[in-house]
Amino acid sequence: MSIDGIEKNIATLLEKAVDRFASNEMLYFITEDKSYTYRQLNDTVNQYAVILQKAGISKGDHFAMMLANGPEFIFVWLALAKIGAVAVPLNIRLQGEDLEYALNDSDSVGLVIADEYAPVFKQVKDNTPDIKILFSVGVEAGDIGPNLPGLALTAATEFSGVEVGEDDLISIQYTSGTTGFPKGCLLTHEYWQTLAWVAAQKMSERDVFFCVEPFYYMDPPWELLMCIMKGMKMVVARSYSPSKFMPTIRKYGITVSWALLSYWIFKQPEYPEDKENNLRILFSGAIPKGIHKAFEERFNTPLREGYGMTEIGPGIVMPLEDGHMSGSGSVGKPTAFRTVKIVDEAGQEVVQGETGELWVSGPGMFVGYYNKPEATDAAFSGEWFRTGDLFREDEQGYFYIVGRIKEMIKRAGDNIAAVEVENVLMSHPKILSAAVVPVPDQDRKEEVKAYIVPALGESSETIPPAEIIAHCVKNLADFKVPRYVEYKESFPTTPTGKIRKALILQEREDLTSGCYDRLTDE
What we know:
It contains 15 helices and 26 strands.
């Protein structure tokens, strides 16, 4: 791809960055209190590549990683890129059956695992016979395999490299699906660099990026590469804490970050120093319209939403300069290298303003689902990827998420987008989070049920069902107002905060029992 800043492979990208920014601080890990310059990062990555290659990892091999947010994850991921091998990042919360599935489904030949997760691997070790190369990370290393960081310390800082092209795979990224076993997305060196390039266009060498998401998710790799492209510094947190987010932003002079679900941050107690930060832009997903402008005012920070998927990489994002759209509910306009269209059930483009499924095409998207050709074929219509998400486009060319096709509630002939009802619910200051699902109904086919997690210090007594219903009546068409309301302390979620509704629906056979019913007012 002849785009300035996108190299033939990720190793070349890193090495050219060392030539430009050698002594610049590249990484700082808060928990470990460790920092690395660009040259130190490259030297360490080379050491890891030497050890992995000596152990038998070659170009094209699949190598699994079960590591938390720490230096080792980045070192291994970039080392595999230099070898031309394929990283398989694993969710650190996987238990026996799920871990066994991921290792076998990905055809991984090796694994590096932190000591704290080793007991889970031991449970399935006999059922994952293809795992021949094992390394451990941690102070008690040696139980599973040799300590990779220890070996790397004495390895050479030069690595001869392997011929790797932009179309070669660098990772199999498992989607954080909310139902069933996840699918492995095949991602190339071009994919990750395209995503990073799009994000890097508004960045500069002076920016400091704060990374809070789990490294095994899709965002941290492109965030890392974005920083490398621009000579930026990336500050890394071990985990995401809404209460510590803004204090950390202030402490380290962060200028850019991606916030996991901004309403979690907004609903923290207010402090006089909220506006005292260096943030010039904060990205987030699922921004409730009702808090968007209030968030920007409270923290004196532009808050921008975007839309992407593991399969497509970049998709749609709200430009930084379009502050007039805050609170509109729009996720923005298509990014560079992405063409989108909204289609009906027959695959024909709808009239502007009408709702339909979003299809996406462009260079640098995923290659397909690993070992699942039927799923890959079903996901595409020619060059177009079918997102499964319902969108509409306004007359100014801004796009709006209406909901997931599979999360539409069909009530007496009306289609209700669960996400619309959820956004209204979460605009209430006493509600932290909400999940809206369909429940069977004899007369209307389906009814609307709302699960509510009250905000900190609130409860079913301080925000009773009648108040919730009244809030919905004020902000929704009458047929969209939930009939049933149930309170929960928390929701089961994916690592990125998506509520796993399938697990909620399995909690009991009759989901209309034991909860408030507005028709009976009980």
